[in-house]
Amino acid sequence: MDAFVTRKPKKRKTSDEPAEESPEESTDVKLAILASLHPDIEQEMLLDILLAHDGDVQATSETLKSPPPASRPVKKTTGVAGQTSLRSFTSDSSPSGEPSSKKPKILSKKGQTLYLYDPQDISEHTPCSIIHNFLPAQEANELLAELVEESKTFQKVSFKLFDNIVSSPHTSGFYVGSQKELQEQKNDYHYNGGRITDVRTLTPKLEAVRARVQETVNQAIQDRIRTHHGGQKPKYQPSEPWCANAAFVNCYNGPQESVGWHTDQLTYLGPHPTIASLSLGVTREFRLRRISSFLPSSPSTHPPTSDPNLQGQISLPLPHNSLLIMHSTTQEQWKHSVSPSRSLTPHPISGNIRINITYRHYRPQFHPRTTPKCHCGVPGVLRVVTNDTKTDTINNTKSGSGGRTKKENWGRYFYMCHAGNVPDPTKQKCGWFLWGDFDEDGNPRDPSGANQSKPG
Ligand SMILES: O=C(O)CCC(=O)C(=O)O
Ligand SMILES: [Fe+2]
């Protein structure tokens, strides 16, 4: 097993030509494909048989189709469920290949993980879309090499969680387009109630890629409105063009580095943002799970009612040079994470390192000068009410919930104090909160960034 997992990278074609990694090279992806075809077989067993067939997925699958020996371990209740390409197993797709307007079936079950790799499956069953081999191979490889070097000076982000100071189990760096934006970030913007001191300007390679990402994302947004929303932009989704004016670059150095379940902060992006995430280097699993307040329910009501245990996780293996687009509703209705891995197939350039660039649109309407401020004088953080709101946000505040725990408020936006989230034990939250009020395009309805309705 080790020989496969730590096998040497393929030889380069010439000494100065970087090696390309095709999606087929990743063990994660091969396992995802096999797991989808043979969902009753343990992952460990799949890996062993794959190794015995020298990494050949088809030969492995043929072997597995033969009657199982009595001793073959069969999976019980947990593990991988579903298909990598679901199309051949469901009749949901229209003949054109576009998603049907039928209510999506719940495909993943409690305690189980559905692995999806095929772009059409991902588009149909998650709030995301994916483009494999996004950049010309050489550009992707050069960008990876540059960012691996940059990442040597990245830091872990520290924040406060229920009075404990925790730091993220990976490092990151933050990039903006100009010196002016850099100064604004340092002087005006707050994150987790504090400031970011290490802000950088986009490197020439990040800048070149940003233009491509921007064009692709704007096209993808329009395609999604057509294929998933009957041509009608969802409420609160901005209608202005998406502009990639900021980039968080994450570095995961080794299988244990990860990021836990979270949603990305809406404060400066506004409601229903689009975020584009370019993966470089070793393949890692990006996981998604729907926040239970937003599980599809029958009959469909708003807010939807649900059994919080109905749905499991969806795992998307993200190979080198893949662009994942998190569309409108991803941040409001789903959580995402990058889970620790048991083993990795080293990438020829970065070894066990994965670099991820999330390009974001910091909208001028959400500049911190217009963000409502809490009693501590700090711009509030923009959140959505979900069934998690009570434990997630209201602990440690002095005031009551102000209605934020009520089911009828699921899906509503609010601002709350974030000053208590800085890693300083003397700082407490002031308990302030304000309902957010946005127009059809997700723009704040008044110049202060939210209406002045009293908590209730
Ligand atoms: O590394 C990834 O794919 C996800 C990163 C992420 O979730 C974030 O930066 O907010
Ligand atoms: Fe995120």
TrEMBL record:
Specify where the region named Disordered lies, as residue ranges. 1-28, 59-105
- GO process annotations (BP): DNA alkylation repair
Q: Where are stretches of biased composition, namely Low complexity?
A: 88-99
The molecular function terms in GO held by this entry are: dioxygenase activity
Q: Output the SUPFAM superfamilies linked to this UniProt entry.
A: Clavaminate synthase-like
Q: Which InterPro entries match?
A: AlkB-like, AlkB-like_sf, ALKBH3, Oxoglu/Fe-dep_dioxygenase_dom
Acidic residues composition bias: residue spans: 17-26
Q: Where is the Fe2OG dioxygenase domain?
A: 243-363
Q: What is this protein called?
A: Fe2OG dioxygenase domain-containing protein
The species is Apiosordaria backusii
